[in-house]
Design a protein that fits this description.
479 residues, alpha+beta, elongated, eight-stranded mixed beta sheet, 13 helices, 3 domains
């Protein structure tokens, strides 16, 4: 059973890894345009603007030094961010872009704020800031650029004319357009890749969840939940806890197995286990195992409502199972199963060792201890339809559940005889106000639980009882 637990934990922790591996194997991931390439395009465009401006007499000749700087700076920046101590600096990409904003602002000031080249440089810088760092990067980049622009313009002055020749303007706008288009293309490809990755991860996650739900069928829901949420680790460890332990089996099952075909017997047994499991889960029980026609359940782990409430929930479950078994027995009789099937149950409360037992590659989440042996012994001593409980269980439930003293028994592992008690019913259901009624004869069976009948069902039940009463009266008059 705990091998399924390990599988569940592996599914939960490796869903993302599986999705990433699937993306790597089946798609070509296209990263955003590297800063190195983007910087080369931007500074090459700037160098082209400078050359055009100098050739047309708009810029001064000494700005040719900026051409050399524009063509070499991308390589220097790449070397600084990849090969020096700066590579360990947090957010180095954003910091280097701030430096580009300072350089760009200084250059705009040096060319005297000539309109179209200045706007071209500004657009490339602002677009880069938005792509790399969003609004925050854009705001800080703008402040740095304006500050360096103001300092440069104050030092070198503003050009006499802010207009630029046609060729310089066209080259500036074309260079800016090329840079923005290339950057936008890479951003689009990145968005497509991220969308595809998200879709594949979602599909992988759904597959992992589906697999985990399949594996969860081998575990009690409480154990599965604690493993899948990370509350419990899958390793060999145990702890001492005070639990309420329940055992039950079907009296007469051996005789029935000799009468029925294996397929029909399997279907009946699975139906029985399914019905009893729903009752157990409704009361919060942890289903330990099914062995033959026996069921082992415990209360108090992995979650507990306190010793008294755990014991009360366990005994309440047993009473409900006994009632439900009467209804199931009537259904089986209508299907041709004549052998009366009864369950017998035993419950004990005390300290047990609970946890993972077994080997590293095959574990079983279960409980051991003398209280487990006592519950099993009580179940074997019980008469059909009887619920036997230990003294400690009785002491925790006696104020709400009526029990009958059954004397003492000797159990291996206990130094003294063990007092045992038979569960009668809830105290609230005793006397004339009880909600559950039963009456059974050959040809007649009635099991009434008035607490579970709705108003609409109540009218149907009354009508059925009146029809049955009329039929019996007619037959009695005829006699």
């Amino acid at each position: 059973m705990m091998s399924a637990q390990a599988d569940l934990r592996n599914v939960a922790s490796s869903a993302g890894k599986l999705a990433s591996a699937d993306i790597h194997d089946h798609t070509v991931a296209i990263p955003p345009m590297p800063d190195y390439n983007g910087r080369i395009i931007a500074y090459t465009a700037t160098a082209a603007i400078i050359v055009a401006g100098i050739l047309q007499g708009v810029f001064q000749q000494w700005l040719l030094w900026f051409v050399a700087g524009a063509l070499t700076w991308p390589h220097i920046a790449h070397l600084l961010t990849r090969r020096t101590f700066l590579r360990r600096s947090p957010r180095i990409r954003q910091k280097m872009l701030f430096l580009d904003c300072v350089i760009g602002g200084t250059f705009i000031g040096l060319i005297g704020l000539i309109a179209i080249p200045s706007v071209s440089i500004l657009l490339m810088l602002m677009f880069s800031c938005l792509i790399v760092g969003g609004i925050r990067q854009w705001l800080f980049g703008t402040v740095l650029m304006l500050a360096s622009l103001a300092a440069s313009a104050a030092t070198f002055g503003v050009a006499d004319s802010l207009q630029s020749p046609l060729l310089t303007s066209i080259l500036a706008l074309a260079s800016t357009g090329v840079y923005i288009c290339v950057t936008a293309y890479y951003s689009h490809q990145q968005a497509r890749t991220l969308l595809l990755a998200k879709t594949q991860i979602q599909n992988q996650r759904e597959q992992s969840i589906a697999l985990s739900h399949k594996l969860s069928k081998y575990l009690s829901p409480q154990v599965w939940q604690s493993i899948f949420t990370g509350e419990r680790d899958v390793r060999l460890e145990t702890q001492r806890k005070k639990l309420a332990v329940f055992f039950s089996d079907i009296k007469g099952f051996t005789e029935l197995s000799e009468e029925m075909e294996p397929e029909a017997l399997t279907e009946l047994l699975n139906h029985y286990f399914n019905e009893m499991s729903e009752v157990a889960l409704r009361y919060g029980g942890t289903i330990d195992k099914f062995v033959g026609d026996s069921i082992m359940i415990f209360f108090g782990d992995p979650t507990s409502r306190g010793q008294r409430e755990d014991a009360f929930a366990c005994v309440s479950m047993a009473i409900d199972m006994r009632k439900h078994m009467k209804i199931m027995r009537q259904k089986w009789r209508s299907q041709g199963i004549k052998t009366p099937l009864e369950i017998r149950m035993g419950i004990s409360t005390g300290y047990t060792t609970v946890g993972n037992f077994g080997a590293e590659n095959r574990m079983d989440y279960t409980i051991i201890g003398k209280e487990v042996n006592l519950a099993s012994r009580l179940e074997s001593l019980a008469e059909p339809g009887e619920i036997l409980v230990s003294y400690e269980t009785f002491s925790l439930i006696k104020d709400r559940i009526m029990c009958r003293d059954k004397g003492e028994i000797t159990v291996k592992g206990f130094g003294k005889p063990v007092p045992i008690y038979e569960v009668v019913d809830f105290r609230r259901d005793m006397g004339p106000n009880r909600s559950f009624l039963e009456h059974e004869h050959s040809g007649f069976a009635m099991y009434l639980d008035s607490d579970k009948i709705t108003e609409r069902e109540r009218r149907d039940v009354l009508a059925a009882l009146e029809d049955a009463a009329d039929r019996l009266r007619q037959e009695d008059d005829a006699d």
